[in-house]
Design brief:
single chain, about 180 residues, alpha/beta, Rossmann fold, 9 strands, binds magnesium ion, glycosyltransferase, Hypoxanthine phosphoribosyltransferase, metal-binding
């Protein structure tokens, strides 16, 4: 285990098993349709690529970068779009793929925005959700795990751009972000 990690919350094996279940469910729900998977950079990349390989059906990849976070561990509540999607979402079945829903502020802006652009459907898949932190209600169609209110890293998630490559999800030691 990495020295900055206090505790492993979800092992590689637990994540893989859950991602397979989500992929199977998505495969069923979208039978006969083409999915435009929209990953939110950068945290969702690991989940996105694993999930995509568990979906049996036609899928397109697209990415956008938007965040309400700087390098701190609390939300500023302001949504910034740094990189938009390449695809026109009009008449597409969009599946937003996010790493974690915390306050819900990010998704509460994104889902209506994609619907306004004319998407036929907009659904949301997130690996993690912290219900205790929710400020805005967002309907989550596919949720990997509900987790307690702790700052987690690994499997794509970062603190100050580090730890994204850890294969598990771990709780960061407080001293790492308090110094
Ligand atoms: P909101 O609050 O809009 O934010 O739902 C979602 C975004 O917040 C970031 N986030 C975290 N990133 N560990 C992280 O590495 C965490 O525990 C955490 N909680 C929130 C994340 O970027 C997500 O997309
Ligand atoms: Mg993110």
């Amino acid at each position: 285990m990495h020295q900055d990690i206090k505790e492993i919350l979800l092992t590689e094996e637990q994540i893989a098993a859950r991602v397979h279940e989500l992929g199977a469910q998505i495969t069923k729900d979208y039978a006969g349709k083409t999915i435009l998977m929209c990953g939110i950079l950068k945290g969702a990349v690991t989940f996105f690529t694993d999930l995509a390989r568990c979906i049996d059906g036609p899928v397109y990849f697209d990415f956008m970068s938007c965040s309400s976070y700087g390098s701190s561990t609390t939300s500023s509540g302001v949504l910034k779009i740094r990189k938009d999607l390449d695809n026109d979402v009009k008449d597409k079945d969009v599946l937003i793929v996010e790493d974690i829903i915390d306050t819900g502020v990010t998704l509460s802006h994104l889902v209506p925005m994609l619907k306004e652009r004319g998407a036929r459907s907009v659904k949301l898949a997130t690996l993690l959700s912290k219900p205790a932190r929710r400020q805005v209600e967002v309907p989550v169609d596919y949720n990997g795990f509900e987790i307690p209110d702790a700052f987690v890293v690994g499997y794509g998630l970062d603190y100050d751009s580090r730890y994204r490559n850890l294969p598990y999800i771990g709780i960061l030691k407080e001293e790492v972000y308090s110094k």
